[in-house]
Amino acid sequence: MRAVKSKDTAPEMIVRRLVHSLGFRYRLHRKDLPGKPDLIFPARRKVIFVHGCFWHGHDCSRGARKPKSNADYWHAKIARNVERDGRNNEALQKAGWDVMTVWECDTKVADREGLAVRLDAFLNR
């Protein structure tokens, strides 16, 4: 578990490069915001979370995998993560921030063009 990073993950770096190539500048991991969003656009009042599918309970094939060992612990852990993510999104929205979640599966090479379009649409509204 020590090897699992919470910052500067491969999917996060892909999203950062895409956002930068679209011409947007951002801040990283502000500790004063709920959930410490991965990318923050203060002037636009927008934040982006980049979530790993397994760790945050996404409904894709990678997120739907069930651990074989210590299954009860992992099911409870992932359920807590999903609940915490919901609370953080709600708190950010109440504070006037727009929230976007990018899933690890969205960063695959075949999906990056669509992801760039979604990021641009989110940041320009």
Residues in β-strands, percent: 5-15%
The named CATH superfamily:
VSR Endonuclease
- Written as H for each helix and E for each strand, in order along the chain, the element string is HEEEHEH
What is the C-level CATH assignment?
Alpha Beta
Radius of gyration: 15 Å
Summarize it.
The protein is α+β, with helices and mostly antiparallel strands.
Overall description:
- This protein has 125 residues and is of the alpha+beta class.
- The protein has one domain: 3-Layer(aba) Sandwich (Endonuclease, Chain A), CATH 3.40.960.
- The protein contains 3 helices and 4 strands, in the order αβββαβα.
- The chain has helices at residues 10-21, 71-94, 112-124; strands at 27-28, 39-41, 46-51, 98-103.
- Strands 1-2-3-4 form a 4-stranded mixed sheet, sandwiched between helices.
- The model has no long low-confidence stretch (mean pLDDT 92).
Q: What's the arrangement of secondary structure elements?
A:
Blueprint (H helix, E strand, L loop, with lengths): L9 H12 L5 E2 L10 E3 L4 E6 L19 H24 L3 E6 L8 H13 L1
Parallel strand pairs: 3-4
Antiparallel strand pairs: 1-2, 2-3
Using brief descriptors, characterize the structure shown.
four-stranded mixed sheet, 125 residues, alpha+beta, Endonuclease, Chain A
